[in-house]
Amino acid sequence: MARVGFLRSLAAAAAGVVVVATGATGAVAAPAAATAAVPDTAGVRAALQAAVNAGAPGAFAVIRDHGATEGKVSLTVGKADLDGTPMNADWRFRVGSNSKMFTAVLVMQLVEQGRIDLDKPLRDYLPAGTLPEGWTMTGRQVMEHRAGVYDHTNDLLEQAGEETTSAFEARIRHNVYDPAKLVSMSVAHGVQYTPGSRYSYSNTDFVLMGLAVEHITGRPYADVLRDEVIDKLDLRRTSFEVPEEGIEGRHVTGYLTNDDRSKPLLDSTEQTASWVWSAGAVVSSARDMDRFLTTLMAGSAGGLVSDDSLKQMTSVLPTPTAKISYGLGLRQIALSCGNVFGHGGIVQGFQTQSFTTPDGRRSVVVFANASNNGSVTQGLMNALEPAFCGKQPAPAAAPRTLTSPGADDGRQGGAAPRDLVPVVEDTRI
Q: CATH code at 26?
C-alpha cells in the first residue's frame, strides 16, 4: 500500500478533473469531490448498531486514510457467527455486486489495448448467438445499466422478497449455471426499452461483460481476473472460485433473513454463486477492497487502468435514486462533503458498501452479515456520511416566536438529523 499512497499526490489533480468532466458523455455536473474530515466514529458506530438492532448478527466499518500519513479506524459491532464469535473486520466475505467494479476494470484494460470499442454493439465481442441479431446496445450502455437488458436474477428469485429459504435452496445454493444460460434467460424477455433511453440496474449486464472478457482474451474469466487484478495488486484475500461453495480461510458467516421474521436466520455462506458469476461472485476483505479502490482511483499512476479509462468510469449519469449516479461499473454517491465512488453489494447473507474519495485518500468499507433486510442495508448506508464527512455541525438555535413561545422545533434536543443516503437499487444482489 505504500507505493499506492506515494502515487496519491500524482493522481490527485487528475481525479479532480474526472469528477467534472461531463460534456462529451452527457454526465451530470456534480458536487465537488469529497474532502474527508475526521471520521465521526460515534456516528459510524451508531449506524452499525442500527444494522445489528435490525437483525444482522454483526457489522463493521473500516476507514483508511492514505497520504503523508497512513491511518486506519476499525469499528466492529456484534458477532461474526451465531456461535458467538466476535465480528472481525479482517476476515473474508462475499462482496456481491462490488464484483462489478472488478469486471469493469478488466473491460477497460481491453479498451486500452484496442480490443473492444465500447461504442460499438456489444454482440460483436461475444460468442456468436449470445445476443440476437437486432440487439445493438453498446458495451458502454451495458456497463451503465442503460441497455434495456432484463435482469435474469428476477427469474431465479421470482418476486421481491423470495430470495430466502425455498428459492435459495431450490435454485441458488447448489445449482451451477453456465453464464450463457443466464443470458439466455434474460434474452427470452426481449429488450426492455430503447437502449440509452433510461437507467435500469441489471446483473445480466455484467454477466455479458464477463463473457466479453472471456471471448476477447480466449481465457476463463477467473484466470484473467487473477492475473490482471488480484495478483497484480497482491490481493491475498480476494478470489473468484465459482462454483466452489465454501470460503477458504478465516471468514465471516453470512445469514439469509427469512421472509417470515419469526423464523431463524439461515446460514447461507456456502453457495456456488454461479447465478451471478462476474456480476457478484467475488470474495474479498476490507483490506483488499481498500487496496483495489485506491489503486483504481490513482489512474495511470496506480497501473490498474489509465487516466482516460478512469475518466470514463467516473463520468456518471443520474439514476432514479436521489444522490446516486452511475458510470461504468462505478457508483457515485453525493454526500454532504462531496462525492465518493465505489459500489455496494448484496448476496445472500452478506452486504457491503465500498467507497473512496476521488483522490483515493480515504476509503470506507462497511459490512453486515445478513441480507434480505432493508433496515440492515439502510444502517450501512447511514454509516457513509459520518465516516467520510465527520460530525455534522450543531444547528443554530431556532428563534422563538410570540405565537408559540417555547414550542418544540422538532430537533429533539437540538440534534439535527444527518442527511441520509438512500438504499440503492441493487438491494437484491
A: 3.40.710.10
pLDDT greater than 80 at residue 261: yes
- The Cα–Cα gap between 159 and 173 comes to 17
Using a pLDDT cut of 90, give the percent of the chain over it: 76
- Spatial CB neighbours of 375, under 8 Å, sequence gap ≥ 6: 50, 51, 54, 55
Determine the Cα–Cα distance for residues 253 and 251; give it in Å rounded to an integer. Answer: 6
**429, part of any domain:** no
Q: Considering its fold, how many domains does the chain have in total?
A: 1
Answer yes or no: 186 catalytic: no
Of the candidates 273, 255, 253, 213, which has an alpha carbon nearest to the alpha carbon of residue 93? 253
Cα separation, 128 vs 93, whole angstroms: 35
| Cis peptide bond N-terminal to 220, omega within 30 | no
Residue 408 burial (CB count, 10 A): 9
- Euclidean distance between CA atoms 55 and 382, whole angstroms: 16
Strand order across the beta sheet in which 255-256 lies: 266-267, 255-256, 370-371
Minimum mean pLDDT range among 27-41, 80-94, 106-120, 361-375: 27-41
Residue 287 lies in a domain: yes
Query: What is the SS3 assignment for 154?
Result: helix
SS3 61: strand
Q: Which residue has the cell 465454501?
A: 246
96, 98, 292 from 267: Cα distances, Å: 16, 21, 28
pLDDT at 354 over 70: yes
* Residue among 28, 210, 203, 179 at smallest CA distance from 104: 210
Q: What is the DSSP string of 343-407?
A: EEEEETTEEEEEEE-TTSSEEEEEEESEES-HHHHHHHHHHHHHHHH-SPPPPPPPPP-SSSTT-
Structural domain that includes position 336:
2-389
Q: Quick check: is 406 in a domain?
A: no
Round to whole Å and give the CA distance between 177 and 273: 9
Residue 104 lies in a domain: yes
Write down the pLDDT at residue 422: 84
pLDDT at 16 over 50: no
User: What torsion do the CA atoms of 312, 367, 236, 217 make, to the nearest 10 degrees?
Assistant: -40
Active-site position among 97, 268, 278, 315? 97
